[in-house]
Every structure is written in C-alpha cells, then in structure tokens.
C-alpha cells in the first residue's frame, strides 16, 4: 500500500478504532439499498445525499460489473465519519450541493438524475481537486477495493494460505504463453 | 530461558533494532558468548498473526510514527508523511521484505573511482571491496538459505515470472532467472518450503522466507546470552566525560523512561531512525550529534531509483499467485555509460494483489480509463525497475525543527532532490520494460512513479577518511570507539541491488570484529 492514499491510510490507522467503526457500518450497509439509506440517514446524511455520493463514487471508479451495493459499502465509512464529525458532515453536504449545482448548470437536473455519463463527468471536472473531491476520492477507494466479495468479480482469489498457497493450484500455469 | 539483564549491567552490548542488521548481529554475538540486550521499538508479533491481507498487514506492522519529507522527489508530493515504507516490529523490515538476496557488484564499491566526479553527487569509494566481503556474502547466503547459491535450488518460475522471461528472451536479454531468494524452495534449516502463497510482503505465513523475527532472534535467545525487549524506543545514547558511550535511555511499553548501561552500543534502526538517534544524542562534547564531527550523520541518504511498469495482456497471468518477487532480469545491472547514466538497474517482478493495485494505480486519476486497468486485473504483469541512487550530500535526514513524537523526540525529515542521472536511468528502464512486454503481445503499459522507499541506505556512511563519513570499514564510529552502526545506513553507495544481503554480510563481519576487539580488551 503506497502513494497518496497512504496518507489516508496512515490517518485511519492512527485514528484509533476508525477502521473498526467503518467496518461495522459497512456490515450494516451490506444488505443493499433500503438499509443503506436508513443507515446513512442515521449518520447525518440525507437519503438524497447518500445517493449522490454512491453515484459520484461509481463515476470515479466505474465498473459495470459491480452493483450499487459495493459503492454503498465504499461510501459507508464517510457517513460514519460524518455522524461523528460536524466538519465532515458540512464538507459532504456542501460538496453534494456543489455537484448538484454543477449538474443543474449543465443539464438542469441534480446529479443523480443525469443519465448521460459524459455530463456527470463534466460536472465532476468542475469540482475536481477541491476538498470534497479529495475527501470522497481518498475516503472511498480503499473501502471499495478491499471488499472480498468484490475481488472474485475481477478474478482475484484473495487469501491463499488456508488453501496451502498456489503450489499445487496453478501458480505456474500459463498455457497461452509461447514457449 | 532468555536472560534478564540488569539495567546497571555495563558489560552488555546494546543493539538498537532487530531487523536484518540488528537481529543478525545479536544472534552472532550471542553465539560467541557475548551478552546482548536488543531494544526494539516495535512489538513482537507471532507468525500466526500474519494474515493474507494487504491493507490489514500494512496497518499492523508499518512504521507509522510521524515523519516529514521535502525536496523535488515524487514521494514528497505523493506521500509526504510517509517517505519510506519500513516496519516497526521485532524482525523489522525482514518481516515484509520480498527476499531478493543479491550481492553488490565489484564496481559498486568503487563509485568515485569508476564513475568519476559526477556533478551534484558526493560519490565515495567504500573502504572495503567485493573480495573482502565475499566470504561474508557466502556465509550470509548459507545461513539465510538463498536460492541459486551453495547448491540450494532456485524456486520454480510462476506464470508471472514466465511472462517476464519470455519477454526478456525476445528482447535478447540473457541474464534472467528466478531471483536469488532467501526463501526455502524445499524445507531447510527447520523452516518450511515455499507454498507459493503470493503474500511474501504481508509476512510469510509458512516461515519459508528468512526473517530475523523467527530465525535469528529465537536462536539468539536460545543461547541464554540475549534478551529482546520489544516496545522499547531508544531516545538517546549517553556517554561519559571521555566520550565513550555508557548506555541508552529508552521509553518502555508504558512510556516510562528507562536506562540500560552498555559496554558497546550498536545502532541498527534503519537509515532514517539511526541518524535520527545519533543527531538526537548531541551533548556539550558532541554538539552536532553523536559520532558527527564530520557533519556527515544524516547525509547521503539513498533510496533506489525505482519505478513500476504494469502491462496488460488479453489472457490471464494471475500475477498474485506464487512467490511475489521471484523473477529478475539482470542484463541492465552492468556499468555502461553509453546508456546515458552511471550505475545500473535490475528488473524485478512486482505483483500486487487487487486491493494494492487498485488503490495505487494512477494517483489522482479517475474514470473509465483508470477503471479499465482494474477490469483487466487478472491479465496484468508487473515489473519493478530498481537501480543505483547516487550519494548526494544534501539528500539527508535531519531532525524536524518543531515537531516531536509522543516521547518528545524530534521527528525526522527526509529530504531528497532527484539527480539527472535518476531520470536518465528511469527513462531507460521504462523504455526497456515497455519493449519487453510489447515483444510478447502486451496491449498497453502503464508507468508508476516511485512508491515510498523500502530500501533506505546511507546517512551514516563508511569511509576510509574520518572527514568523509561516519564509520570505518567495520561500521565502527570514527569518533566514538565503542559505538557501531549495523544497518544499511553504513552503505557508501546504494548499488543497484536490494540491500538486505549486504546488510547481513556486514553484520556478520562486524560481529567478528566486535568479539575480537572485546577479547583483546580494546573495547
């Protein structure tokens, strides 16, 4: 684990308990749409704000093979943090408003109602590099890609020691490679 | 039972740090009958605590104490608060190392002579050469169980390695094979054989990889001559009126300050923490910091010139399967200035699990193009360019003027300005890695700038002349005879090879010297 996200990770691991709290929220939100919204509302974000963050996260890291539940789990730690921290709550609320305002300027619709991805991307470009963008970018990336349920969808097999590693499970197999 | 030494016992050798240098030195001295106390800042983990979990293990054993960085290097922008990825636990960075165990080349010990006077660099020849170190390399390879040496077979090639080798062959390279690794291909020396888990860097769950955590430290304890004190961060080294060191002050696991007397102190805290400790041990006798009459402590910090190339194929590679770094191309490691740079580089396999790959990919970028790399994860191959970094006097570790850690010790700042040689080497490496993968059908490649440094060298460098460095050819301080440096901070040059084998070889040599000097009453 390296690069700019490290800063985020360092913060998480040094803010004691943050990840654990995030994980609990992730678990609570794991069942999909409605429970997520309930949870997010409890966290201080409105249902609409949560929906915007889920859509925004999908646009940052778009994988058609993933349904929204994966993005909801990625956003959950932000909601968790917002519940405890007024500054985060404000940052996210203002950011969602900015994103909506950019979308309305481009398509006369709030962000989640814009069906044309190129317009949503144009809206994101208007806020790219700002504090809200960075918060969501850095705060959702690891929770998104560190979901074991997600790995299989990309062909990544995850932990291997319990299966005895890959010694007898094809570590050297590559039939297509010319000899 | 490991002994418990009295804090007032001034007959012991105190070793600060338990990684490749400190752990090896402790084991060797204890086996020679010398009483040793190892003070390790991190906690003691059991092998059973290792998980195949990239994110989790990063949090579990990375050195996350505050650090800052400055200078023109990429890392100061990308991860300013974490300029290096080192470990904080018993065993140090030998717990997460990739286990590439390579010798330095002859010319890398003589950079000033062989490379000449390079503008903007402060090259210096080592006071030892390859011939002098060769017997210790032999012993290091034997005790660590390095594949491809002393009759120990090489590991089998993974699919990921086969891709690298096929491209190397196509490109006309000839020096490619599964790397000399300190990983048992078959059970050896009480440790298991490699099970090809792919999680070397998260701590080897089978113990097939050599680490001082479960090799040297328990062996040292079994002699009855060594005591390991985890969660003990040394804050200062103390000395008497004559300038000899007398002991260390450290914070124990409760944060309480303790003192341990010592006959000899050996510092092995990695190239950031070791100079930090010496600089923080200044006194009226040593106003610039301990062992620093030359002003060289903290200077000539070297990482390696590194970059990563990932290539996308249209069929599966499964780069995450198998021994992580067990493939190397060494053709570019030679000294050949016709390429436009001095020094050389190796191409080493660099797989990443999906969480690491996806979160390290193209920092700051987003959208469909970035995501398409992750969509194609299973078809990717990755290689690390690792080359020689030149010594530069102003690339250095200093004490932060204001910020302090929880014990009140100034935190370190790591300053690096890239040298034009770095960019020339990096550019060449990118071109060669691209060509290698394209020669066997890669659809596209992506280039990564350096990650935080896992290889950290220099900052207490060896020199023949006390004016030019901090320690002599045995790692002994030029200024303070009973003070030693036992880690990679002794390095006078960085070479183009992973540093651990050289650290271990130097520690073996140093242990002989220390034991001999003690016998003679010189220490």
Structural summary, described in words:
- The complex is a heterodimer of chains A (179) and B (523).
- Chain A is mainly alpha-helical and 179 residues long.
- Chain A has one domain (4-153).
- Chain A is built from nine helices and no strands.
- Chain A has helices at residues 4-14, 18-29, 33-42, 47-60, 68-84, 86-107, 117-127, 131-145, 148-151.
- In chain A, α5 packs across α6 (86-107), α5 (68-84) packs across α8 (131-145) and α6 crosses α8 (131-145).
- The model of chain A is unreliable at 1-7 and 9-41 (pLDDT under 50).
- Chain B is built from twelve helices and 17 strands.
- In chain B, α1 runs parallel beside α12 (500-519) and α5 (130-144) packs across α12 (500-519).
- In chain B, the strands form four sheets. Chain B has a six-stranded antiparallel sheet with strand order 4-11-12-13-10-16, with helices on one face.
- Chain B is globular.
- Chain B is 24% helix and 16% strand.
- Chain B has one domain: FAD/NAD(P)-binding domain (3-Layer(bba) Sandwich), CATH 3.50.50.
- Chain B has 523 residues and is an alpha/beta fold.
Offer a concise description of the structure.
The complex is a heterodimer of chains A (about 180) and B (about 525). With about 180 residues, chain A is mainly alpha-helical. Chain A has nine helices and no strands.
The number of distinct structural domains of chain A comes to 1
- What oligomeric state do these chains adopt? heterodimer
What's the total number of strands of chain A?
0
Q: What structural class do helix, strand and pairing data of chain A support?
A: mainly alpha
Spell the H/E element sequence of chain A: HHHHHHHHH
Low-confidence spans of chain B: pLDDT under 50, at least 5 residues?
A: none
Q: What is the global morphology of chain A?
A: elongated
Percent helix of chain A, as a range, is 55-70%
The chain pair forming the largest interface, with residue counts per chain, is: A-B, 49 and 58 residues
What is the residue-averaged pLDDT of chain B? 97
Give the termini separation of chain A.
34 Å
Helix content of chain B: 10-25%
Number of helices of chain A: 9
Largest sheet of chain B: 6 strands, antiparallel
Q: How many strands in all of chain B?
A: 17
């Amino acid at each position: 684990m390296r690069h700019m996200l490290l800063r985020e990770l360092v913060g998480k691991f040094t803010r004691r308990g943050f990840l654990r709290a995030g994980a609990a929220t992730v678990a609570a939100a794991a069942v999909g749409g409605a429970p997520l919204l309930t949870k997010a509302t409890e966290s201080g974000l409105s249902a609409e704000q949560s929906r915007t963050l889920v859509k925004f996260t999908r646009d940052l890291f778009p994988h058609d093979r993933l349904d929204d539940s994966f993005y909801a789990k990625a956003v959950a730690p932000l909601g968790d943090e917002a519940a405890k921290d007024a500054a985060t709550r404000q940052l996210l609320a203002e950011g969602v408003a900015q994103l909506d305002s950019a979308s309305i300027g481009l398509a006369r619709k709030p962000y989640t109602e814009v069906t044309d991805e190129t317009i949503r991307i144009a809206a994101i470009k208007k806020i790219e590099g700002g504090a809200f963008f960075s918060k969501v970018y850095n705060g959702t990336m690891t929770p998104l890609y560190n979901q074991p349920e997600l790995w299989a969808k990309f062909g990544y097999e995850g932990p291997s020691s319990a299966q005895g590693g890959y010694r007898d499970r094809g570590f050297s197999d590559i039939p297509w490679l010319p000899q | 039972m490991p002994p418990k030494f009295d804090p007032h016992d001034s007959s012991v050798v105190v070793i600060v740090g338990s990684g490749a240098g400190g752990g090896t030195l402790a084991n060797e001295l204890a086996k020679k009958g010398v009483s040793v106390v190892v003070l390790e800042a991190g906690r003691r983990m059991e092998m059973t605590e290792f998980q195949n979990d990239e994110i989790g293990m990063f949090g579990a054993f990375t050195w996350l104490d505050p650090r800052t960085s400055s200078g023109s290097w990429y890392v100061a922008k990308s991860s300013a608060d974490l300029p290096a990825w080192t470990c904080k636990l018993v065993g140090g960075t030998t717990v997460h190392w990739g286990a590439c165990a390579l010798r330095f080349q002859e010319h890398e010990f003589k950079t000033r002579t062989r490379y000449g006077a390079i503008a903007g660099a402060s090259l210096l020849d080592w006071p030892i050469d390859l011939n002098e170190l060769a017997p210790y390399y032999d012993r290091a390879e034997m005790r660590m169980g390095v594949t491809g040496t002393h009759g120990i077979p090489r590991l089998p090639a993974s699919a990921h390695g086969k891709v690298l080798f096929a491209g190397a062959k196509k490109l006309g390279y000839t020096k490619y094979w599964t790397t000399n690794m300190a990983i048992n291909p078959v059970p050896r020396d009480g440790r298991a054989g490699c099970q090809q888990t792919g999680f070397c860097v998260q701590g080897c769950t089978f113990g097939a990889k050599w680490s001082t955590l479960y090799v040297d430290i328990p062996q040292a304890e079994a002699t009855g001559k060594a005591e390991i004190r985890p969660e003990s961060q040394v804050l200062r080294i103390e000395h008497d009126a004559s300038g000899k060191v007398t002991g260390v002050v450290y914070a124990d696991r409760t944060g309480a300050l303790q003192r341990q007397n010592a006959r000899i102190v050996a510092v092995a805290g990695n190239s950031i923490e070791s100079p930090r400790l010496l600089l923080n041990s200044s006194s009226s006798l040593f106003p610039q910091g301990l062992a620093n009459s030359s002003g060289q402590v903290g200077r000539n910090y070297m990482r390696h010139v590194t970059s990563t190339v990932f290539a996308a194929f249209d069929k599966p590679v499964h780069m995450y399967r198998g021994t992580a770094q067990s493939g190397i191309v060494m053709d570019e490691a030679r000294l050949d200035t016709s390429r436009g740079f001095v020094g050389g580089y190796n191409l080493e396999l660099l797989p990443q699990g999906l969480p690491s790959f996806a979160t390290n990919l193209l920092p700051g970028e987003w959208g469909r193009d970035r995501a398409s790399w992750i969509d194609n994860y299973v078809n990717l191959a990755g290689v690390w360019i690792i080359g020689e970094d030149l010594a530069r006097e102003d690339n250095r570790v200093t004490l932060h003027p204001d910020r302090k850690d929880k014990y009140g010790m100034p935190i370190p700042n790591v300053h690096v300005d890239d040298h034009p040689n770095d960019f020339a080497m990096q550019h060449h490496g990118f071109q060669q890695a691209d060509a290698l993968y394209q020669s066997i059908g890669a659809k596209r490649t992506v280039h990564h700038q350096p990650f935080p440094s896992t290889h950290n060298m220099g900052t207490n460098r060896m020199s023949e002349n006390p004016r030019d460095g901090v320690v002599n050819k045995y790692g002994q301080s030029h200024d303070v005879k009973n003070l030693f440096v036992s880690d990679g901070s002794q390095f006078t040059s960085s070479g183009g090879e992973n540093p651990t084998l050289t650290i271990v070889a130097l520690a073996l040599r140093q242990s002989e010297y220390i034991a001999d000097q003690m016998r003679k009453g010189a220490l």
